[in-house]
Amino acid sequence: MDSLKLLVHPVRLRIVHALSGGRALTTAELSSRMHDVSKATVYRHVGRLADAGVLEVAAEQRVHGAVERHYRLRRERAVIGDEAVSSVSKEEHRRVFAAAMAILIAEFGAYLDRDASDPVADSVGYRQHALWLDGEELAALIAELRAAIVPRLGNEPVPGRAQYLLSPILFPIEEEIR
């Protein structure tokens, strides 16, 4: 299965999100974070991600006669490359975008379902801005966003930190003025 088909799946991408930042969790711990997904489904998708090399076993321990595995994300394997994206049809782009939006909706719903969720206090945002940019300005904007985001991708979960989902979406809404 190519990286695009593997990762653009609502359950698998939520597993990737949960394990980001160097976390190692068991399948049971992952399942407890996804109340809306059955345990069997979480186990199946953890298996697929592990088989594909996106997850690795960080530790194993015996618990009541069974082996409990702690999984860790291999960030370098949890990437959808430009080659995979450039090789898909427009119809496939529609399906991938719809899947990405479904994942956002599921993650946001899970957030709102938490007793302690407070969109104002948690600085939740879902704004849209229409920008007029030429090619140079677009490249600069993308570079600035990457410069702000990339250094924080390696942040680990420590006391005082919460995990946030940032999902930039960028596409032209009008054709270039000539």
TrEMBL record:
GO molecular function: DNA-binding transcription factor activity
Pfam families according to UniProt: HTH_20 (PF12840)
Domain HTH arsR-type as annotated: residue spans: 2-85
Signal peptide boundaries: none
Record-given protein name: Helix-turn-helix domain-containing protein
